[in-house]
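If you are new to this repository, start here. Below is one unmodified record pulled from the training split, so you can see the exact layout before writing a loader.
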Amino acid sequence: MRALLLERSVSREALCEVGHDNINIMYYAYILKLSDGSYYHGSSNNLKERYKCHENGDVDSTKNLRPIKLVFYAAFISKDKALEFEKYLKSSSGFAFRNKRLIDK
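And here is the target side for that same chain:
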């Protein structure tokens, strides 16, 4: 599995100085490999819980395609950036980027 932190690092002190209250919340864009060989792209602010939902069959899009495997995730400081990256991964250029750079074949 590959993981990236795609935003520049910011110290806790710097975040506190500029008034960020929730400095521990991260947002994730992720890729799951499904049992039929296809990929599912998603985002969440709690990757472990979201993965459990997929594993337990609580997500309609993946419940009939288990078992699943987490093959990539990226952590973001902002929800908007995570959603933007998820949207990109679903585009044709995002598919090419995923296949060339993000997943092991």
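Two things worth knowing about this chain: The first helix runs from residue 12 to 17. The first strand starts at residue 2 and ends at 5.
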